[in-house]
């Protein structure tokens, strides 16, 4: 059947005197399967199809992308990689070192990416000086979301310190409301943990602990205080939290089943997809503390054979960084555009908060890569930390034991 179709095309081309032009094709591996995520990635599929491309979707469900990364490894081992893969930060370099990534400098130069992307973000997209990935957005991880009506009914304001958060949560608990919607999956525990590291320790502490992996910082009293707060937070989640997907936790806040969620602004994509309005139905604020934890989604372009696939890669890269897609995608996804020249006029108060804080954090040196979302560390080190965070959250391990385990886990992962 396949042969027949191919030869039919060939005959048609010969008869019309034309040549068989390759049509752009891309198989795209991603983990955007929740309501807001699926809506956002559908926009890219539409633009791609609008330019004559054939999109082969390879969604692998699982927030944070752990399952997607397992699927990717299997495909690369089978010597059949997808054309483009949602990949981030140091993982891009890891795959480049495996010899798996293609060079998309042609498109990047033609589209002047260097002029419109912040330098620090552009650096993540380059492999030995050439472009190998295309960035989509800037997500902020250190966000806290709240059900506006619940806070009002209980006389609670968005907390600005962890003490305030704990006091608000105790009050809610006493009133019979689940204070914190959380999904007990390792990456979600890690997400909460890194915001507490930033909030309690500050930005210099965060950098020393989760970027430089300094052993003294990892075992310090401040790190013990971070685990103490994690233990307190554990007391604010409901009894069914184990294994829950992050978007179901967001739905709890949306539906009035819980007051708060600590989650990156992809949670806003869920609120928006459900027709909820920021400032009215739900509130957003940075998690207590100073700084900004960034998480840049990007697509790494893999080495593939075939003119159609190569054209697909180029088209995909061009669209992803294109100004119109950057606007519409990010309006849906909850993030802000990664391009510096896209107007934020159509964006809401949470996006403006994010953009303003990001600029301020860049000036003050507190713009920090998220470890929980693969921006700060290589896989082995990030995984070692997350294992300890999850083990602590799901047991009665003391903070003293947790910091010891943390230092050991890091030492063993090097
Ligand atoms: C993050 C990713 C976001 C969002 C989230 C939940 O790692 O950067 O785009 O998809 O996972 O799936």
Structure keywords:
D-Maltodextrin-Binding Protein, domain 2, alpha/beta, globular, 14% strand, binds beta-D-galactopyranose
CATH first level of the largest domain: which class? Alpha Beta
Quaternary state reads single chain
Query: Taking all residues together, what is the mean pLDDT?
Result: 94
User: What's the CATH superfamily of the largest domain, by name?
Assistant: Periplasmic binding protein-like II
Distinct bound molecules? beta-D-galactopyranose
**Number of beta-strand segments:** 15
Largest sheet report? 5 strands, mixed
The helix count comes to 20
Q: What is the molecular shape?
A: globular
Approximate strand percentage:
5-15%
Q: Supply the helix-strand structural class.
A: alpha/beta
Number of domains: 2
Runs in which pLDDT lies below 50 for 5 or more consecutive residues are 1-18
Which value, in Å, is the CA radius of gyration? Answer: 22 Å
